[in-house]
Amino acid sequence: MRTLLALTICLELVAANVAPLGKYTAVERRHWAFQPRSNPALPKFESQADKNFVRNPIDAFVLARLKKAELAPSVPASKEVLVRRVYFDLTGLPPTPQQVQAFVNDKKPDAWPRLIQQLLDSPHYGERWGQHWLDVVRFAETDGFEYDTHRTEAYRYRDYVIRAFQNDKPYDRFITEQLAGDEIAPQEQESVIAAGFNRLGPLRKNAGNQEVASSRNEVLTEMTNAVGAALLGVTLGCARCHDHKFDPIRQSDYYRMQAYFASTLENDFPLTDREARTTWEATVKPIDAQIKKMQSEMAKADPVKQEEIGKQIAQLESTKPPPPPTLYSVKTDLAKPSPIHLLARGEYTAKGDSVGMRPMGIMLPEGTPEDKDLQQPRARLAGWVTSKENPLTARVMVNRIWQYHFGQGIVVTPNDFGRMGGRPSHPELLDFLANEFVQSGYSVKHIHKLILSSSTWMQASDTKNVKASTDDPENKLLWKFSRRRLTAEELRDSMLMVSGNLNTKQGGPSVIVPIEKELVAALYNPTQWKVTPDPAEHKRRSIYLLVKRNLHLPMLEVFDAPDALVSCARRESSTHAPQALELLNGTFSNEQAEALAAKLAKSSGGKPEKMVDQAYQLVAGRLPSLKERQVAIEFARTATPHEFALAMLNLSAFIYVN
Length: 658
Prior knowledge:
Blueprint (H helix, E strand, L loop, with lengths): L1 H15 L9 H4 L18 H6 L3 H12 L10 H13 L5 H9 L5 H11 L1 H14 L18 H12 L4 H14 L4 H6 L17 H21 L18 H8 L5 E7 L3 H27 L2 H15 L8 E7 L8 E3 L7 E4 L22 H9 L7 H14 L20 H13 L4 H9 L13 H6 L12 E2 L2 H11 L18 H5 L32 H4 L19 H9 L1 H18 L3 H13 L5 H13 L2 H8 L3 H4 E2 L1
Antiparallel strand pairs: 1-2, 3-4, 5-6
Helix pairs in contact: 4-18, 5-6, 8-9, 10-16, 14-15, 17-18, 17-19, 21-25, 24-25, 25-26, 25-28, 26-27
C-alpha cells in the first residue's frame, strides 16, 4: 500500500513538472498568461461581405475565429435595440423615449460615435463602471463577522472610484493610488482616500481578549489576496498555506508579496482641528472605560453570559457620538513592521523562514534577490504591478472591460488566469486590446470606444442560426450578441427611473433605507440600522446605498448582488421563484408600480391604447408588437392601473437587454 501511495505521489509530481528547490521549469514559464504580450498581425479578408463586417481590428480577430469554426456572424441589431443596449452598458439606466427617438431619427454618419461620447461624458457613466470595480475589490462599509461595525467614512473610497472612471483616470495611476496613495502623495486627499483600498477586506473584532498576532495575520492576508485577485488575476491566496497546487506560485512568493504590506497600518486621517477631536475624545472616554470593564468581565464569564454582555457592549457602542470626519486609509510606519515568515498551513504560530519583499518569482529572472529598500514599499509594488512589461495587469483589465460589455470575458475566469482558469477564446484579440490599452495611456474609455464601434458588439441577439447554436451554444466565438438580464442595481435603478422617482444626487454618505423589521432585529446590534431620515434619499441610485456585510437588501440579494466578502469576478444570473415574488409582492416594486401608474394615467388621459404604447416605450424602449399591443390593451381595460403598471415592470422586455 505504501509503495502504491509513493508511486502515485511521484507520478503526480512528474505530471505537474514540479521544479526542485523553488526554481521554475520551462513548462511553468511557458504558461500563456506569464508570457510577454504578442503583437498579432491583423487577419485579412477577400470577400466584400467580410470587409463590410470589419469596422475595426476587433472584428477582424473575431471574424477570423468564426471562419475557422465555419460559422458566420449575425445581422446588425436595430437602432432601437442598440440605443437601449448602449445606455445600459455605459450608464446602467434605460434611455427615455425621447432619447431613443432622437437617436433613431439622427441620420448623420457620426450619430453613433457622438452617442457613445455623450454617454461616456454622462455623470451616470462613473456610477455604472464604478460599481463594477467595487464588486472586484469587495467594497463594503462594515467589518463583517459578528459585530459588523460600520465604517462611516468608507463612502469616500466609493466616490473616489466613481470620479476615477468618470474622469478616465489612467489605469496605472488608478492602481498606484490605491496601492500606495498615502506614500506617493500624502498631502493629497484623493490619493489618501484611494489607499483605503488596502482596508476594504472583512475585519474580525473580538469583544474579549484580542489575539493581536492572529488579527494582524488576517489583515495582511486580506491585503495580499486582493492584489492577486483584483489586480493580477491570479489565485495568489492559494499559496498561503503551501506551494500552489496548479500554478507556478510558491509559498515563498506569497509571503514575499505580503512583505510589501509589513509596515502598513490602518490610519484615519483627521479632517477637523485638534479641539474638535479633543471634545469628542472626552465624550467617549468614559464610555470606552465602561466597555473595557465589561470586556474584562466577559472574558471570565460563561458562554451564555458572554453573549449577553456582548450585546450590552454593542448597545453601549451605539451611544457614542459620531466621530469627527476622517479619511479612511492606511499609513506606512517603518518603525513597526510586522516580521514576515513562511507560515506552515498559514497558521500564524507556525513560523518558518523569514522573508523580504519580492514580486512573484515566475515573472522574474531566476535568482532575482529580495527587495532590500524599505522606503515606500507599496509604491514599489505598484511600480511592478503597473509596469508596461507586466504581462498580467493590462490583460486582466481589458478582459474585465470586455466581460462587462459581452457578458463573459475572452478569459471566462477574470480572477484566474492560471492553469485551472479558462484559456483565452481569442488570444490574439486579448493581446491586441491589452497593447491598445497600454499605448492609449491606460485609457478605459478608449477601450469602450473600440468595443462599442465594432460590428461584433452591434450584432443582433435574437438570431436563429441553428448551426452556430449547435456548435457554439455558449456563444464563446461571438457569432451573436448575448442577451442578458439586468443586474440587481440596474433593475432597482430602472424601476425608479421609469416611475419618475429616481433621485440623481451624487456622492456623499451612504443611504440606509427602510427594511423589514424582522431582518433588522436579526442583527447582533439592531441599533446600527439607522434609517436615513430624508425619504428623498431613499430613491437614490443603488450604488449610494449602504453596503452592510451582514444585512443585504432583499431586492438586491435576490437578483445576485455580491456578498462583499470576497472579490466578485463576475455576477451570476440565477433564475428562481423568490425573484418573481420580490417583483410581484415586494414593497419596493409595488411602490414604483404605483408611481408608474399615476405617471401613465396623467400622460395618456386614461386611454388604454395610448397608455399601452407609452408604457412599452418607457420600460422596453420601443413600441409593442401587434400581438403585445392587443394583449396589453385587453389587460389594461380589466386590471387596475396599479396592476397594469406592476405587470409592465415584470416584463422580460424590461428586465432583459437584447
